[in-house]
Specification:
Layout: H1 3-28, H2 45-48, E1 62-65, H3 90-95, H4 97-104, H5 111-116, E2 119-129, E3 132-137, E4 139-143, H6 144-155, E5 162-171, H7 177-186, E6 223-228, H8 236-239, E7 242-244, H9 245-248, E8 249-251, H10 259-274, E9 282-286, H11 297-302, H12 306-319, H13 323-329, E10 332-335, H14 345-358
Parallel strand pairs: 1-2, 1-10, 2-5, 5-6, 6-7, 8-9, 9-10
Antiparallel strand pairs: 2-3, 3-4
Amino acid sequence: MGKKKKKTFKKFSATLGVIITLLAIVMYIPRTARIGYKNDKYANILKDANIAADTRVVDIAMLGAHDAFSSNINLLSAPDPAESGIVKNKAVNAVFKGGLVRVLKAQQDGAKVLLNRGVRYFDVRISYVEGEWYTKHGLLDTNLFYYLKDIYDFLENRPQEFVILDVQHIYTGESNINEFLNYLIDLRFVGNPLGLNDFIHHTSAIPLNDLLYFDVLGPTHGGIVLLLKDDGSADAAQKTLFYERNDAIRSKWHNKRYVRDIVPLINEEAAYLKTLADSDFFRVNQAQLTPDYLKDPLGTLGRWSLINIAATSNAKLLNNKAFDEWLSVMPIFMVDFANSRYARFNTRVNEKIIEYNRNLGA
């Protein structure tokens, strides 16, 4: 082989090596460079707002975490048994698992960090797999008790804080809601004798329209409001623990990939809610975007991850001139990457929420 051919071959080999390396990064790297706030600045966000005891719970503003329990999704995560399509495709999982992880992991941190950064509404997805209850978002995350432990520990000594656990999707497999609720009732952690019944201080016999801040708090522990869709198996005692989510909440998914497309739909939802005579249910502003490799492969790939997309979109939505109006009609502002520090999002949105709650009833 001549010198010229050898030189050409070396250039080709180097170029090929760079291409293969870039492809490997795109296909398999599951991480993003974004980092969120982790300190406990907003651990007492409801207490700090000095909310009147007789305030309706559905009127209290709070930061929500979309697909809240997805922070542990990784390259080894199995597909959710309730899923179909691209997530379950073996070829896609073999060659593009990193890309799947990046657009399915909606929160960078677990429940403890989110609670400390002001999150009080948790959008929860659960599947029953081989005798265990897992959290998920397309791919399985980890056992549900991993997140519940942090929530129980957090609420144990915060009697003025409460959280909403909205089980938006649940796949019971060969189990059912009765068994799921028994699991929650019986669950205990080492060194902590408290269970679900120690945090649900109200009864769902109280209509949501009449459920007050005072009702959901305990003398020594914070509270949990549970939203769940019954499959008909819950018994009478279990039904007192949760509100039927179909009646208790309005949370409209806009299913758009860019902020310019989601804003008109948020405005439309706000306008509709203003026409209602009474808002006796939780109203959620679903302010997250929906990346899609099939419909927008280059755009989704270019923006790299759900966390990365949310960092910029969260800030843009918060800066929107209609944000205060949105909050007044949809007090739960739900986003991906809820503890984002990009453009000081988490700090700024929590300060707005505190101010809003301080003025309730004024």
